[in-house]
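Curious: why this fold?
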Amino acid sequence: ADVRRARERAADANLVDLLAMLADPALPIDSRVPPEALALATTLVRRGVDPGDLVHAYLVGQNELWRAWMETLSARLDTGPELIAALERSSARIFGRADHLVTVLIRHAERERERLMGGEQARRGMIVRSLLSDGESDPEEASRALGYDVGRWVLAAVLWGACDDALEAHAEALAQSA
């Protein structure tokens, strides 16, 4: 749900920026990237999503926007030189903007990934992932590194939802029941 919300906010912000750039040719296509787009990239990196998937999502969005934009221009302008000129101008802006966004977002994602990988949380996450994937991790060494006895039995539940207060209440009820 949080990824979906972040994606929707980023899409809305990107669309507003791009429509403004199409309406005003004086606006540069290499201007700032909306904070919502950066937030989405950060969210995806923290979820372990490959940055290539982010690029793919932007390409899909670009293609869908281009298709809709061509239909709009075709409905408003007569076929001929005026339509061709409008398509050429707008394609340069749409595709140039998408290139700029992807370049900035990939750099942002790489910095975020480096930051996470260098931190304690990343190190602990790698240990847990190795244990869960039946890797060749030494449970005693993992227990020392995590500060938690990984050799004991654990009962766990994963709760997912939009409201933190409700999740906390459900978690408490589950813990009491267990």
User: Anything to note?
Assistant: The chain is about 75% helix and 0% strand. The chain has a mean pLDDT of 87. Residues 81-117 form the longest helix (37 residues).
